[in-house]
Amino acid sequence: MKAKMLTMSAAVWLAAVGVTGCGTVGGPEAKGAADVAVRAFGNEVQTPSSGSTSGAGGNTTATSGGVAGNSAAAESQPYPVVNTHVPPKVYGMRKFPYPYDAMLAISSDADSETLRKFNLIHEFINTTQMTPLGKGLGLDFADSFFMYNGDNLPGYVDIHHEPMSDELSWFKGVSDQPYAASILNYYIHVGWIDTMHTFGDFSERNQNETLFSRKLAIQAIDALKADGDYLTVWTDHGNKSNVDNFGDYGRTPFYNYQQGANPWSKYYHTDITIPYGIRFVWPDGASDQFGMSSMIYPLRLPDGREVWGFWRYTSEGFNAKGDPEWNWTPFGLDEQLSPAHLREIEIHHDYSIVAQHLCGTTYPGVLPQTAVQALRRLAQQYYEGKILVTRTSRLLNYNVVQQYVSYRVTYEGGKAYIHILAILDPVFGAYVPTVDDIRGLTFYTSNPAETVIEIRNTPIPASLIQENRSDGVAPSIGIKWWPVDTTNYAETAPGVY
């Protein structure tokens, strides 16, 4: 059996294990999964032989993404990336950018955020410099922020009994006076922030009261637009005083406090928030599922608008009353990023978005040693080519593109041409992508050197193309993922704690 597998044509073998995506000549474009589960045979899988049929032309439309390969096999493959004796044949999409088996983002809420804690977290996670927590990890991580602070809950926001009024926000309290506006604008532009954790922290002792108003929403959107700050990710926040929440309104009576998408409410704002650019919404729901084949789902709001809802891992199970066992503080990070969880998403080729509150404690070092070690464990999986760690907005955008990319394959002059036609986004509508929209898309092909990726009929610049040796399934070609920026952008501002 082993000898037969080694001599089997790559096209036949890939079809046998479920990789699809090769079209035929002519005919209308049809929807079809670019892959299903693949059993990778490691080094038993040879670079495709010349017995593979090249095809005269074809078209393929993919609406669900490619399979993840085997990065361990990729590291040990003895075969060259390029075999000029093999006519090109495109087999379908790889689920994640080569060589990764999974993709993970940490989605950290801005609760109790101060500039001191924010800077310490990002210097450790984003840079490779020495920090008070040890050598930086050099990972792509982006945070969230508040526009306002209307919180009157008891307690402190940081060491030295720093009051809750010093929580990091764009405006001072709920006024029109800037507080940390300039530095938050700077962090949005350099990529250290990519998520709006609602319009602000409006949690109050009396949950029947709130300081939020539609006027504050308009002021916030106007300020962001004026500075060129366009964010696509929104996460709901806090207790029932946070009436600007909107993701789960109407799901159960508990969520009726969420008025942001209720057009009959004085707190209504999604008529300005969604057109501003919010595309992805976490609707304040608990989940104990660490990895998922897809993080996104269409979410229809009470005002009739549609956005992408997305899942986050927030808790490790539920108690006898059905309440979540929340583990989304730094003291729960070791459980969240456990070896078993990381291994699970690698094996199943899953996405994961891990909800956290990295600045959520008054712990002097911000992160306890257990959390530091958990992040180092995650970084090791990234550097070993197993889990692609990225910011939340990039994971969500890739998730949409990977599921709904429409492409066609044609063959001419000894080359295979992959024409990326559109992203058939069922929520926001189909569009022709830019190169940045499709970063990371990767296609299995018998000969990467003779395969060309194009947007419609315009080739992707060669500097953005990556040719890959076999990962145990087949060689591949892809559009390079975003390079990690390890620059230390940490700054301080007078009067901002």
What order do the helices and strands come in, and which of them pair?
Blueprint: H1 2-7, H2 10-17, E1 31-32, E2 60-62, H3 71-76, E3 90-94, E4 102-108, H4 115-126, E5 130-131, E6 134-135, E7 143-145, E8 148-149, E9 156-158, E10 162-163, H5 181-190, E11 193-196, E12 200-201, H6 214-226, E13 233-235, H7 270-276, E14 280-282, E15 296-300, E16 306-310, E17 315-318, E18 324-326, H8 333-336, H9 339-348, E19 351-356, H10 369-383, E20 387-389, H11 392-404, E21 405-412, E22 415-423, E23 442-445, E24 451-455, E25 458-459, E26 465-468, E27 476-479
Parallel strand pairs: 1-2, 4-19, 4-20, 7-11, 8-12, 11-13, 13-14, 14-16, 22-24
Antiparallel strand pairs: 2-21, 3-23, 5-6, 9-10, 15-16, 17-18, 21-22, 23-27, 24-25, 26-27
- Percent range of helical residues: 10-25%
What fold name goes in the CATH topology slot of the largest domain? Answer: TIM Barrel
Largest sheet: 6 strands, mixed
Please count the helical segments.
11
Q: What's the Cα radius of gyration? A: 24 Å
Query: What top-tier CATH class of the largest domain fits best?
Result: Alpha Beta
Distance between the termini: 67 Å
Number of domains: 2
Report what the structure shows.
The protein is an alpha/beta fold and 497 residues long. It has 2 domains: 2-101 and 396-448 and 467-479, no CATH class; 102-384, TIM Barrel, CATH 3.20.20. Helix content is 21%, strand content 21%. The chain is built from 11 helices and 27 strands. It has helices at 2-7, 10-17, 71-76, 115-126, 181-190, 214-226, 270-276, 333-336, 339-348, 369-383, 392-404; strands at 31-32, 60-62, 90-94, 102-108, 130-131, 134-135, 143-145, 148-149, 156-158, 162-163, 193-196, 200-201, 233-235, 280-282, 296-300, 306-310, 315-318, 324-326, 351-356, 387-389, 405-412, 415-423, 442-445, 451-455, 458-459, 465-468, 476-479. The strands form 8 sheets. It has a 6-stranded mixed β-sheet. It has a 6-stranded mixed β-sheet with strand order 7-11-13-14-16-15. A hairpin with a 2-residue loop joins β24 (451-455) and β25 (458-459). Residues 1-80 have low confidence and may be disordered.
